[in-house]
Amino acid sequence: MYLCKETDSMLNEVLNVIHGPAACFKIQYWGVNPCLFDNQPHKHSFFEVCYIINGEGEYTEKGVVYPLRAGTHFCSRPGINHQIRTKEGLLIVYVAFELDETLSDDTMREAFSDLAEHAEVCIHEADNHPTAHLWKSLLIQEGKGSLPAAAIPSLAYALLVSFLSLFGKDMTKPYFHRKNTHILLQRAKLYIRDNLSQPLHLGHVAGYLNVSERHLSRLFSEGIHETFTDFIRSERIRQAAHLLLTSELSIKEIAEVTGFSSVHYFSRTFMEEKKLPPGKFRQQEKNRL
């Protein structure tokens, strides 16, 4: 048995704005209603997505009547008049939201814009769809409690993003292509930072990521507006500066662990970046502490 009142209060209290890796959502309201009856025809300036857990009724949009029963999901899009009618009441959960376009990436803006124009209105027999499982995992059940509070925002984010695959007509559209690119760039940066003492050639890192050298080079130039070589140099100087201030390693040892081929090359490169030789940088910064 679901604790509808408690779940409704919890969701509306803690989930007003939901941030994720590619999008930010403004939540207008959540709803967990154990027995929803008819409402008047109306429209919203935002999305409202509903899931029927139990009961029967009908949903009307643009003169088309869609039957509602357990396992039905339906999407009310911005600016569209709609109405729910039921004789015996519906156990229904719903969320009203809009995408914060200023804090969301281009792929998500495009995806939800497309959803507003072309979404499938009603999906039946979908109790086993991932969206249904995400909904149910947010609900507090009698005798079972709920998930830890720290897990709820990420789960809610996953729920909202799942609407793209549930209601999107073009199921093969690569909504997350740019996210995959971001992951590759992040992996490259992590690999470089963890292996600064090693020779870091473009071909070696590209091979580790299983991409072409050209593709890896483009990831850096387009992703962070910095060349592959310049990024490695910046990271080596950054780590060298950190070690100068936090360790007792000699300048020669620091040059070795940060991947410089010689002390002379290290000192020259450090001077170009920090406008001070390594030894003077260490002394000056420590005098400030």
Describe this protein's structure:
Residues about 170-180 have low confidence and may be disordered. This protein has two domains: about 5-165, Jelly Rolls; about 180-289, Homeodomain-like (Arc Repressor Mutant, subunit A), CATH 1.10.10. The strands form two sheets. A six-stranded antiparallel sheet has the order 1-2-8-3-6-9. The longest helix has 19 residues, at about 230-245. It is built from eleven helices and nine strands. About 45% of the residues lie in helices and about 20% in strands. The chain is α+β, with helices and mostly antiparallel strands and about 290 residues long. It has helices at about 5-15, 105-120, 130-140, 150-165, 175-195, 200-210, 215-225, 230-245, 250-255, 265-275, 280-289, and strands spanning about 15-20, 25-35, 45-55, 55-60, 65-70, 75, 80-85, 90-100, 120-125.
Topology:
Layout: H1 4-14, E1 17-19, E2 24-36, E3 47-55, E4 57-61, E5 64-68, E6 73-76, E7 82-85, E8 90-99, H2 106-118, E9 122-123, H3 130-138, H4 152-167, H5 177-194, H6 202-209, H7 213-223, H8 228-246, H9 251-257, H10 263-274, H11 278-288
Antiparallel strand pairs: 1-2, 2-8, 3-6, 3-8, 4-5, 4-7, 6-9
Helix pairs in contact: 3-4, 5-7, 6-7
Give the tags.
289 residues, alpha+beta, Jelly Rolls, Arc Repressor Mutant, subunit A, 2 domains, six-stranded antiparallel beta sheet, 11 helices, 19% strand
